[in-house]
């Protein structure tokens, strides 16, 4: 189980998240929606222990470990994985190097180099990315859509059990969106991870139907519901669904 309790977060003395509560049971798919600047990406970064953000109150428990007491590497070792809104480029380290190091760190490198490369090639083929991505520097000089697929390739190798997808669907062309969504669905059906989807678009949710939908505004969850809440928001916007115009975050 994953549980955020009474989480308050500040950056540069500004409160961005306030008394936030969110529980995600194993194997559940949750969707987080909200206007630009509401604090959605901040939640994902705080979970991954980005040290730009100061937790002034609250806890984040995952499988009985308090993630607020860990650093990013320790959180990743607990099989928590973020595909961020803007994946960072890391020059000088290739995908293969990163993955072999991470897997061997976790005692999960069970393939010799040939099997490992073949495995990665199969994933590249499924994601419709060139095989040479395996030996390219992480996200370096890749297009926006390529970065999302590259992060997905890593996910298939690292086999996380808690996955945060921060706008993985933004900037993807129609074909890429189909490939990414069906790859995620295949992963979900095979490994049953918990997933937190952050999105502004309906496409991914049509494939990966969320069990619960939460709406964040000004750092607070203001409404909870099921998939129909997301559909209402796509149809009517945030205002008509949950609040008056003056409540909006500027
Ligand atoms: N490192 C930072 N320094 C200063 N302000 C920040 C920082 N990170 C986030 N913020 C501010 O916190 C607020 C929430 O940002 P966040 O990126 O979490 O929004 P979001 O809900 O993901 O929006 P979007 O839908 O546009 O991606 C914004 O007002 C943003 O400017
Ligand atoms: Mg964001």
CATH architecture of the domain at 2-88 and 162-247: 3-Layer(aba) Sandwich
Q: Which structural category fits the helices and strands?
A: alpha/beta
The tally of helices reads: 8
CATH topology of the domain at 2-88 and 162-247: Rossmann fold
Largest sheet: 6 strands, mixed
Reading off the top of the CATH hierarchy, the class of the domain at 2-88 and 162-247 is best stated as: Alpha Beta
Q: Quick one: overall form?
A: globular
Low-confidence stretches: 244-250
What is the spatial order of strands in the main beta sheet? 6-9-10-3-11-12
Query: Taking Cα atoms only, what radius of gyration do you get, to the nearest Å?
Result: 18 Å
Q: CATH homologous superfamily name of the domain at 2-88 and 162-247?
A: P-loop containing nucleotide triphosphate hydrolases
SSE string, helix = H, strand = E?
EEEHEEHEEHHEHEHEHEEH
> What is the residue-averaged pLDDT?
94
> What is the tally of beta strands?
12
Strand content: 25-35%
Task: State the distance separating the first and last CA atoms.
Answer: 34 Å
Helix content: 25-40%
What does this 3D model show about the protein?
The protein has about 250 residues and is of the alpha/beta class. A six-stranded mixed sheet has the order 6-9-10-3-11-12, sandwiched between helices. Strands 2-1-4-5 form a four-stranded antiparallel sheet, with helices on one face. Strands 7-8 form a two-stranded antiparallel sheet. It has a domain at about 1-90 and about 160-245: Rossmann fold. The protein has helices spanning about 40-45, 70-75, 95-105, 115-125, 145-160, 175-190, 205, 225-240, and strands at about 1-10, 15-25, 30-35, 55-60, 65, 80-85, 90-95, 135-140, 160-165, 195-200, 210-215, 220-225. The radius of gyration is 18 Å and the shape is globular. About 40% of the residues lie in helices and about 30% in strands. The protein binds adenosine-5'-triphosphate and magnesium ion.
